[in-house]
Amino acid sequence: MNAELFIAKRIYKGDKKNDKRVSSPAIKIAIAGIALGLAVMIVAVCIIVGFKKEVRAKVVGFGSHIQITAYESNSSYEHTPIAVSDSLIDQLQANPNIRHFQEFITKPGIIKTDNDFMGVVLKGVSERHDWDFFRANLLEGSIIQPNDTATANPAILSKEVADKLHLKVGDKFTCYFIQEPVRARRFDIVGIYQTNFEEYDQLFVITKMEILASLNGWEDDMVSGIELLVNDYDQLDKISQELFYEMSSHTDRLGNPFYTRSIKEINPMIFNWLNLLDMNVWVIIILMLVVSGFTMISGLLIIILERTNMIGMLKSMGAADISIRRVFLYLSAFLIGQGMLWGNLIALLFCFIQDQFQVLKLDPATYYLTAVPIDLNILHILLLNIGTLAVSLLMMIGPSYLVARITPAKSIRFE
Question: Which residues of 123-155 are buried (b: 16+ CB within 10 A; e: fewer)?
Answer without folding.
Answer: bbbbeebbbebbeebbebbebbeeeeeeeeebb
